[in-house]
Amino acid sequence: MQILKKLLILVVAVVAIALIAALFVDKEYAVEREIVINKPKAEVFEYVTYLKNQDNYSVWNMKDPASVKTYTGTDGTVGFIAAWDSKMEDVGKGEQEITKITEGEKIDLALRFKEPFEANDTAYMITEAVSDSQTKVKWGFNGAMPYPMNLMLLMMNMDEMLGKDLQDGLNNLKVLMEK
C-alpha cells in the first residue's frame, strides 16, 4: 500500500510540474520559407493567388490524389474556400479560405483543420520583385496550441516539421513556373 501511495504522489507531482511548465511555454509558432523564381512578379502573384493551383505544387495537396475537394466562391478572390477530405490520417479534413489579397503583394489565408485534430491557423504568400524577371516568394504559416497542449511544442520542432514541406512546395512552384 505504501508503494502505491508513493507512486500516486509521484504521478500527481509529474502532472503538476508539466501543467505549471506549460504556463511558461509559448503557445504560438511561426514558420516561413522563401525562394527566388525566375519570372516577373505579376506572373508569379497571379499564379499563387489561385488556390486550385496549389494542387500543382503544395506537398500537402499532393499527398492524397484521392482526396475529395470542394470549392466555394470564385478562386483568386477574397472569400474563396478550398476544402479537402481525405481518408489518410496525415492529410485529414479541413479547408482554407482567402481572407485578404493585397494586390501584387500578399495573399492571406485562414486554415481550418477539422480532422485528425481541430485547429484554426493562418498562412500567407508574399511576392517581392528581385528584378524585372525575378520574384522572391515567401510562404508562411502561423499557428497556436492551447494550454496545456502547448507543452508539446517543447518536443516538436514546428519550424523543421512544417518548414520542409513549405520549402518542398516552393521548390515545386519554382520548377513549375520556370518551365
Q: In which range does the helix fraction lie?
A: 25-40%
Count of helical stretches: 4
The N- to C-terminal Cα distance equals 73 Å
The total number of structural domains is: 1
Binned strand content = 35-45%
Write the element-wise H/E pattern from the N-terminal end onward.
Answer: HEHHEEEEEEH
Find the count of extended strands (DSSP E, 2+ residues): 7
CATH level-1 class? Alpha Beta
Shape: elongated
Q: What is the mean pLDDT?
A: 90
Radius of gyration over C-alpha positions, nearest whole angstrom: 20 Å
- How would you sum up the major sheet? 7 strands, antiparallel
User: How are the strands of the largest sheet arranged?
Assistant: 1-7-6-5-4-3-2
- Give the CATH H-level superfamily: START domain
What would you note in describing this structure?
The longest helix has 21 residues, at 2-22. A seven-stranded antiparallel sheet has the order 1-7-6-5-4-3-2. The chain is built from four helices and seven strands; from the N terminus they run H-E-H-H-E-E-E-E-E-E-H. A hairpin with an 8-residue loop joins strand 2 and strand 3. The protein is an alpha+beta fold and 179 residues long. It starts with a helix and ends with a helix. The protein has helices at 2-22, 41-49, 59-62, 158-177, and strands at residues 28-37, 68-72, 81-85, 93-102, 106-115, 119-131, 134-144. The relative contact order is 0.22. The model has no long low-confidence stretch (mean pLDDT 90). It has one domain (27-177): Alpha-D-Glucose-1,6-Bisphosphate, Chain A, domain 4, CATH 3.30.530.20. Helices cover 30% and strands 36% of the residues.
